[in-house]
Amino acid sequence: MPVSPPPRKSELSERDRLSDRTGTNATPPLAFAAVILANVALAFGPLLVRMADTGPVASAFWRITLAAPVLVLVALVAPARPRMPDKRQMGLWALLLVGGVAFAGDLGAWHLGIRQTTMANATLFGNSATFIFPLYGFLVARSWPSRMQGIALILAAVGAGLLMGRSYQVDPRHLVGDLLCVLAGVLYAVYFILMSRVRFAMPPIPALAWSTLASIVPLLLFAAALGERVWPDHWAPLILLALGSQIIGQGLMMYALGLLSPLIVGIALLVQPMVATAIGWLVYGETLAPPDWVGVAMVAVALVLVRRGSPQRATQPVANPDDMDDERRIK
Q: Please, what's the largest Cα pairwise distance for the chain?
């Protein structure tokens, strides 16, 4: 009896590919460590933004612009690098372009929001991707979380509320800043969605390099339109912002996006407010109440629970789109 051949890679839907990431092998230790370290590095971003002597959007512009040459150089010298776009790759490059613009909008809105609302409000609304991105994964893969993953999500939500809700203030003076941070959280989730699709066909550094390049012009135009001071007197905070947040933080995040499920990536984002709480304690002398410690513990337990995964197989992202045959290229 003849056996039907397996489906070609191009015939696999995003649902099938995203479902593969929920398997027991979808949370390898290296990728899980990468997403944790990425969020630790990214948590120092708001501190460096406040230290910069440029406008908030201008600091985002320099974060991207200073990091871009390093990322492009690494992408070009690496053995796995994408060719210039052709007709068969236009969909991939469109995702990179839109993802870069979405990331520029996220950074611009987030940096503005930090200056116009409290740190607690900014952290609360800016991390809304924690729940938007996993929801996208559930809907696309049509694979709802297991009981253990559901418990992890609930623990993460309650822990986040304890970490940030105690100091949340409803104040009309913060409305614009709050809305900007909500917009930033939504755009960050859009960026994750687009770049997770890119990572099915492109290695992490080239993906980050080209999306970073796409963010430069929108941020510069945004800063100029707001009349911000763009040229700094002191470069150290901006260099550290580019190195820590864009090269290390987003570099590790891009690697993790290709290997981990949206649920794990989303819950791992809560590492940022955990670290931000510690920074506030050490740098600004902010006292930690018992709810803060309980929130940290709940988020930590959620990360341990969600790390276990579910009983399905996992696949690895394609290493190099240049080496893919026609039937495996993105249409």
A: 75
* Helix-helix angle 204-225:250-257, to 10 degrees: 130
User: Residue 169: which H helix or E strand, with range?
Assistant: none
Of 281 and 42, the structure prediction assigns the larger pLDDT to 42
**315 Cβ contact partners less than 8 Å away, ≥ 6 residues apart:** 17, 20, 21
Please report the pLDDT score of residue 64 as a whole number: 97
Helix 147-165, helix 271-283: angle, nearest 10: 30
State the burial class of residue 86 (Cβ atoms within 10 Å of its Cβ: 0-12, 13-18, 19+): exposed
Q: How far is CA 138 from CA 15, 255, 256, 292, in A?
A: 9, 21, 18, 29
Indicate the pLDDT class of residue 244, thresholds 50, 70 and 90: very high
**Phi, psi dihedrals of residue 134, rounded to the nearest 5°:** -60, -35
Q: What is the Cα–Cα distance from 103 to 96, expressed in whole angstroms?
A: 10
Whether the CB-CB separation of 166 and 280 falls below 8 Å is answered with no
Burial degree of 77 (CB within 10 A; 0-12, 13-18, 19+): exposed
Q: To which residue do tokens 């026609």 refer?
A: 326
Residue 235, classed as helix, strand or coil, is coil
pLDDT of 84: 54
Q: If we measure between CA atoms, which residue out of 269, 275, 281 comes closest to residue 306?
A: 269
Q: Which two tokens stand for residue 321?
A: 């789109």
Write down the pTM of the prediction: 0.80
**What number is the average pLDDT over the span 5-18?**
50
Query: 268 with 303: CB under 8 angstroms?
Result: yes
**Which residue is listed with tokens 């900014």?**
122
Residues 6+ apart with CB under 8 A from 275: 39, 40, 43, 44
**Number of CB atoms found within 10 A of residue 211's CB:** 28
Distance CA 308, CA 153 (A): 13
